[in-house]
Amino acid sequence: MTKYEKRIYEIVNQSSSHMTVEQIYQILKADFPSVVLATVYNNLNKLYRDRLINKISVEGLPDRYDRIVKHDHIVCRNCGKLTDIQFDDLTDTLKKQFGTDFLFYDLKVFYVCPDCRKKLGADKSDHRHTNRMD
Amino acid sequence: MTKYEKRIYEIVNQSSSHMTVEQIYQILKADFPSVVLATVYNNLNKLYRDRLINKISVEGLPDRYDRIVKHDHIVCRNCGKLTDIQFDDLTDTLKKQFGTDFLFYDLKVFYVCPDCRKKLGADKSDHRHTNRMD
DNA sequence: ATCCAATATTAGAATTATTCTAAAATTATT
DNA sequence: AATAATTTTAGAATAATTCTAATATTGGAT
């Protein structure tokens, strides 16, 4: 592991996780001012390939990186804020249904976070960014 | 509804759905050779905003569009092929857990499709595109 | 320690997906 | 028909990401 890879791994594993490439780049620059964005991409891709970190993709938002811990995510449809949640493990059920070629699953729950609820007021009709109501 | 919007809506609702912007654009050009890519984006965004179609985002793959029907998706981690699946409805459980601000959820199941399984052979160690094993 | 090979980093170009802008065209309204 | 509103167009602009080729660094083997 190179110094960059090591530091990037640390950053992603910090509590204030769920960071974008750009955010990781900014933090890394504090330690290594000469580092280049491509290096961040290279190392994130490598860490991700080697399954040392996770990548979280939400439609309409830039990808974020996460430490490897079994949990799902809840995403505010208004502001995009992403929070870890603990929900029933569906692995066994899915394995039963989809057989041995099942790999893993990705569950994202969409809601309006408390902050946005306040801002939006009692009116629950604002779903500007909502994409799927079924 | 303009002719473009109407036709794009039709295309997305066809059986061979799950199409990318580019694929939709190509089909639309068969009917309207002079149409421009921006028009496809405009209309897809409009249809999506108005919730007449769904958008499917999978990490590493271009967005695809889908008709509005309640179902989840299973995605081959090797070739990206996307197929509709019917899985237990989690809405009630999620509502109970996350309250009235719950909007909807997104469940994607990742696996190796039969075609890729054949190609990859009995060796189940190839997970080139796998991103999350937890 | 020195040389070599392998790997990583850099800078910048290239690509891809998408949005934006302002003008032109189309459609709807009075 | 005149006006207003909306849509389309062309192309520029942006954002995210990958690629390329040169350079630098690192880790063995001698």
List keywords for this structure.
134 residues, alpha+beta, Dna Ligase, domain 1, three-stranded mixed β-sheet, 5 strands, 37% helix, flat, disordered C terminus, DNA-binding
Short description:
With 134 residues, chain A is α+β, with helices and mostly antiparallel strands. In chain A, 37% of the residues lie in helices and 19% in strands. The first copy, chain A, has 2 domains: 69 residues, Winged helix-like DNA-binding domain superfamily/Winged helix DNA-binding domain (Arc Repressor Mutant, subunit A); 65 residues, Ferric-uptake regulator, C-terminal dimerisarion domain (Dna Ligase, domain 1), CATH 3.30.1490.
Spans of at least 5 consecutive residues with low confidence of chain A? 123-134
Task: Walk across the major sheet of chain A and give the strand order.
Answer: 4-3-5
Indicate the CATH topology of the largest domain in chain A.
Arc Repressor Mutant, subunit A
Quaternary structure annotation: homodimer
Structural class of chain A: alpha+beta
* Beta-strand content bin of chain A: 15-25%
Q: Please provide the ordered H/E string of secondary-structure elements of chain A.
A: HHHEEEEHEH
